[in-house]
Automatic annotation (TrEMBL), chain A:
Its cofactor is FAD. Keywords: FAD, Flavoprotein, Oxidoreductase. One of its GO terms (molecular function) is FAD binding. The lineage of its organism: Bacteria, Pseudomonadati, Pseudomonadota, Alphaproteobacteria, Hyphomicrobiales. Residues 51-229 form the FAD-binding PCMH-type domain. Gene3D superfamilies: 3.30.465.10, 3.30.70.2740, Vanillyl-alcohol Oxidase, Chain A, domain 4 (1.10.45.10). It comes from the Bacteria. This is Glycolate oxidase.
From TrEMBL, chain B:
GO terms for molecular function: FAD binding; oxidoreductase activity. It comes from Methylovirgula ligni. Its cofactor is FAD. Signal peptide: none annotated. It holds the Pfam family FAD-oxidase_C. PANTHER family: D-LACTATE DEHYDROGENASE (PTHR11748), GLYCOLATE OXIDASE SUBUNIT GLCE (PTHR11748:SF103). This is Glycolate oxidase FAD binding subunit. It comes from the Bacteria. The lineage of its organism: Bacteria, Pseudomonadati, Pseudomonadota, Alphaproteobacteria, Hyphomicrobiales. Keywords: FAD, Flavoprotein, Oxidoreductase.
Length: 478, 400
């Protein structure tokens, strides 16, 4: 089964493989160059494991200079480049091709500078998301965007995908927390965009680079905002008889002027799967669950939660379970953040990432469940309810090609449903290879052409991650 | 100057097409309150967005509002106030600075990425702008972003357009994320601190978990005879009260503070936002400098050795406003030299000439000069939107 088409590899590049490898070997240390087939196989896919291609070679530079030299060389040779962080992309953004060299930042993982007074940290882009918070935790600071894969994913990948997470309702996503990058362009040119201050000169190229999915360059270093940790934070589990009641409660909370730091939603199947894995104390006798986290001083948290509880009572809340300790808090979040992993224990699944206006939640959930049921499959719904970012996990058996086709069909229908509801195809996972062919559903040809012309201004030859994000047909140059 | 005022997006596209066919550049204008921002535009025809008005979507429970570009900002703010919401980036009003009349528009806010003191805690206009419709220089109507908070579908042209000063497209409709209006606010003032100590106090407050929403320092004689250092807390009343006590404890090593009367404090923050302390004399040049807060006092010291200037700090010191005589290069060389000296040979930030006579802004770099590869990218991006240079040519950089 292969619903998503890959471009045909360029035989002239594959024929020059030995020369290309020899050229790369002159630029980096031996342990930074991976050429053996069994070792390259480790880079053949990312977290969209249904698709895989073995790359021509893999290079893992240690410094910006090495990264620049590698890209300059590959540019001169006319070789395609696929950028890679930790390979946790759920949209296939880091899946290579046979005629492409994977350039990874895994060996560029140093914290370069921490400036508490100015509340910034400068890192090499291969550092993991969680280790950034870890580096500043002793001084009671943290880095806000917290994708579920934060233990493994790199800041390079976060910038590439504009990653979000549970706590982004209050703190924003990656683009709201990156101040500057040092980036290597396709021809090896090193540019600095932004810096350790709030606003930058000229066009907002930084805003463009964040979320560009490896199409504009490879980020070598990043300057990020760090924030003081709140005094305290406390999640509460709210159980509702139905998804509709839970969705209505979310709208009412926000309408009342309360924006908690996180509002997470799980439906019945997601609750069962996550509770079975994490033993977080999730109520099993409810139709849907909200995890609402409030932060501040203990008195502030008490006051905010009291207001939220009062609203929840209007929506037939059946369970209210407040975390009583740091251990309970950790368990509650472990359950939510391991939803994808826990689901993987139960079945194969595709994880969708559509966004809808939150007011459309009840209708969309209803239709979404119908779509999946009509195809004879099951779905677990987990998502960031405050900002309407749905993550339906469509369960299927990867060894059954017919079922995989059905699952992909369900995924496509769900994403179209999101767009029809006024939302979009992806909120935080990116387009990658997975949603590339759905782009014309959200954008008309003129919208897409403008994006592609901007892309081509950075990479006129379409060498960077070339088979991703934009449909293979109808590509335009600058 | 000729003027065209389309009433619909299609008419706006037609106006751009007509201009393109005639190779006659357009100067894009909203309410006309910020015409002095950027380099003077070389255009004989003005395209006004004032005919494109009206709120097109407002969903308070989704924290989102959309309106056509020429909608007056006060109309947006009134609608939001009705539901106890606000544009959290508290956009600056340039009318006092430029002595202009008229009404700022929502499109102007988006085109200029216009923000205020809360930028340090909440973000800038660009952080709240989630969707745009615009007409590019090819006369094409483009949609980018949308009405949902999270969206990573394709390239984020919303950010690119925000702050592009009309050089990439005529914005026809903008969608912003909004936030609840803070239920209450308190402002703590410390008196008599020298700049360096004041910035240290601002950094201490912003590094605490008390969620300071705005932080500024005005040297002696700007608002009060003594230097004045200000901290703003916002939120539910009980929370503000509690955090105010905690903030006093945090700042005890610096100076004992005084909570200001709410009306006075509100006026003071508006004045800081709108550069009122430096508005006079009206013929002086105004510079806006973005820097690392702790290096800002050194930058100012070095600058004052070269040129006379009045100044104050916003954003905890991360934004320095300067008033310098508009003679010669209006202080450009001195400002940019001091930015490099303060970084021991490497620039510590960037400078924008926000107000100066046309002939100065024509010859001096208004925005921070770009490194060669960034300038090339900027030119190529401009060409991808506007290949014939029809839209606000020269507004940001020569040819852009």
């Amino acid at each position: 089964m292969s619903g998503i088409q890959f471009p045909k590899p360029d035989p002239s590049i594959i024929a020059r493989r030995e020369t290309i490898i020899a050229g790369l070997a002159a630029l980096v240390a031996p342990d930074s160059l991976i050429t053996a087939e069994d070792e390259r196989r480790a880079f053949e896919t990312d977290a969209l494991t249904a698709y895989r291609r073995i790359p021509l070679a893999v290079v893992l530079p240690r410094t910006t200079e090495e990264l620049s030299a590698v890209l300059a060389f590959l540019h001169k040779e006319g070789v395609n480049v696929v950028a890679r962080g930790a390979g946790t992309s759920l949209a296939g953004g880091a899946i290579p091709q046979e005629d492409a060299v994977v350039v990874g930042v895994a060996k560029m993982a140093r914290v370069l500078d921490i400036d508490y007074a100015n509340r910034t940290i400068r890192v090499q882009s291969g550092v993991t998301n969680l280790s950034i918070s870890g580096a500043v935790a002793a001084e009671r600071f943290f880095y806000a965007p917290d994708p579920s894969s934060q233990l493994a994913c790199t800041i390079a990948g976060n910038i590439g995908m504009n990653s979000g997470g549970a706590h982004c309702l209050k703190y924003g996503v990656t683009t709201n927390n990156v101040l500057g990058v040092k980036m290597v362009l396709v021809d090896g040119t090193v540019v600095e965009i932004g810096g350790p201050y709030l606003d930058s000169a000229g066009l907002d190229l930084l805003g463009l680079v964040v979320g560009s999915e490896g199409q504009l360059g490879i980020v070598a270093e990043a300057t990020l905002r760090i924030l003081p940790m709140p005094e305290d934070a406390r999640p509460v589990l709210f159980g509702f008889p139905t998804s509709e009641a839970a969705g209505g409660c979310v709208a009412a909370i926000i309408g009342a002027g309360i924006v908690p730091v996180a509002i997470e939603f799980m439906d019945k199947l997601a609750i069962e799967i996550c509770e079975d894995f994490a033993h977080a104390g999730y109520p099993l006798d409810v139709g849907a669950l909200l995890i609402i986290e409030s932060e501040g001083s203990p008195a502030e948290i008490d006051a905010e939660l009291a207001r939220i509880v009062a609203i929840a009572k209007d929506y037939s809340v059946t369970t209210i379970k407040e975390s009583k300790s740091a251990i309970e808090t950790a368990a509650i979040w472990k359950g939510r953040k391991s939803a994808f992993g826990a689901t993987g224990r139960v079945a194969d699944y595709i994880c969708m990432d559509g966004v809808i206006p939150t007011g459309k939640l009840p209708q969309v959930l209803h239709r979404l469940n119908e779509i999946v049921a009509e195809l004879g499959l099951r779905v677990a719904n987990v998502f960031h309810a405050g900002d309407g970012n749905l993550h339906p996990l469509v369960l299927y058996n990867i060894n059954d090609p017919a079922e995989q086709a059905k699952a992909e069909k369900a995924g496509e229908e769900i994403l179209k449903l999101c767009v029809e509801a006024g939302g979009c195809l992806t909120g935080e996972h990116g387009v990658g290879i997975e949603k590339r062919d759905l782009m014309p559903f959200q954008f008309n040809p003129v919208d897409l052409q403008q994006q592609m012309r901007v892309r081509a201004a950075f990479d006129p030859g379409w060498r960077l991650n070339p088979a991703k994000v934009f449909p293979l047909e109808g590509r335009v140059a600058a | 100057m000729n003027s065209v005022t389309p009433k619909t997006e299609a008419e706006a596209a037609e106006a751009v097409n007509t201009a393109r066919a005639a190779r006659r550049p357009l100067g894009i204008e909203g309410g006309g309150t910020r015409a002095g921002l950027g380099r003077p535009v070389a255009a004989q025809t003005r395209l006004s967005t004032r005919g494109l008005t009206g709120i097109t979507l407002y969903e308070p429970s989704e924290l989102v509002i959309s309106a056509r570009a020429g909608t007056p900002l006060n109309e947006i703010e009134a609608a939001l106030k009705d539901k106890n919401q606000a544009l959290a980036f508290e956009p600056m009003d340039h009318r006092a600075l430029y002595g202009t009349q008229g009404e700022p528009t929502l499109g102007g806010i988006a085109a200029g990425n216009i923000s205020g003191p809360r930028r340090i805690s909440a973000g800038a206009a660009r952080d709240f702008l989630i969707g745009l419709r615009f007409v590019n220089g090819r006369g094409e109507i483009i949609k980018t972003g949308g009405r949902v908070m999270k969206n990573v579908t394709g390239l984020d042209l919303v950010k690119l357009l925000c702050g592009s000063h009309g050089t990439l497209g005529v914005i026809t409709e903008a969608t912003f994320k909004v936030l609840p209006h803070p239920a209450s606010a308190a402002t703590l003032a410390l008196y008599g601190l020298a700049d360096g100590k004041a910035v240290a106090a601002l950094c201490a407050a912003l590094g605490s978990p008390l969620f300071v929403s705005a932080a500024a320092h005005l040297p002696a004689g700007l608002a009060t005879p003594e230097p004045l250092t200000l901290f703003r807390l916002e939120g539910p009343q009980a929370s503000v009260d509690e955090r105010l006590s905690a903030l006093r404890r945090t700042l005890a090593p610096f100076e004992s503070g005084e909570a200001l009367a709410p009306d006075y404090a509100g006026a003071l923050w508006r004045a800081i936002r709108n550069i009122v302390p430096l508005v006079s004399p009206p013929d002086a040049a105004i510079w806006r400098i973005s820097v690392q807060p702790t290096r800002a006092p050194k930058f100012v010291d070095l600058l004052l050795k070269q040129v006379a200037a009045r100044y104050y700090y916003d954003w905890g010191g991360g934004l320095v406003w300067l008033s310098i005589a508009a003679t010669g290069d209006a202080g450009a060389a001195a400002v940019r030299a001091a930015l490099v000296q303060a970084g021991n040979g490497q620039t510590i930030g960037h400078a924008t000439l926000v107000r100066a006579p046309d002939d100065v802004r024509r010859t001096v770099d208004v925005f921070e000069p770009l490194a060669a590869p960034l300038l090339k990218l900027t030119k190529d991006i401009k060409a991808s939107f506007d290949p014939d240079g029809i839209l606000n040519p020269g507004r940001m950089y020569a040819g852009i």
